[in-house]
Amino acid sequence: MREKILTFIEKNSRIDLNELAIVLGVDVSTVVNELEAMEKEHIICGYHTLIDWDKAGIEKVSALIEVRVTPQRGMGFDKVAERIYNYPEVNSVYLISGGFDLMVTLEGKTLREVSKFVSEKLSALDTVLSTKTNFILKKYKDHGTVMTAPTKDERIMMF
């Protein structure tokens, strides 16, 4: 049942718990108890709202920063990742495969603000060997949600 609950709330964390209980064929107290248990076990780590900042008229710059690091003896990448994720500007840090070791995501008000963070804070860490910053220019789909209206084919049909 946990997998079913997680699947539903991952798509819509605001689902009515009575409605979820009906869909699952259990009483609402069972759903509430499962959710509370999964929160205590840190299976459920938080509830987030996906916002289209462009439509809200608020300027935000998002960046994906690939980072190559020197792993710490006996701790691998964990200690380096911890140093990075403790910066309040950082949204997420992932260990990745490929030419870089970590993927860091962050948001700022301007390109300059993001660039300043990368050059003055991230690149300045003694364990960071190199970085590659990729700015997000447009979001088409984020966390499973389509962010743009489908394009209409405006070509004239020829016979």
TrEMBL record:
GO terms for cellular component: cytosol. GO terms for molecular function: sequence-specific DNA binding. SUPFAM superfamilies: Dimeric alpha+beta barrel (SSF54909), Winged helix' DNA-binding domain (SSF46785). SMART domains: HTH_ASNC. Signal peptide: none annotated. Keywords: DNA-binding. Residues 65-138 form the Transcription regulator AsnC/Lrp ligand binding domain. It holds the Pfam family AsnC_trans_reg. The lineage of its organism: Bacteria, Bacillati, Bacillota, Clostridia, Lachnospirales. It comes from the Bacteria. Gene3D superfamilies: 3.30.70.920, Winged helix-like DNA-binding domain superfamily/Winged helix DNA-binding domain. The keyword Cell division does not apply. GO terms for biological process: response to amino acid. This is DNA-binding transcriptional regulator, Lrp family.
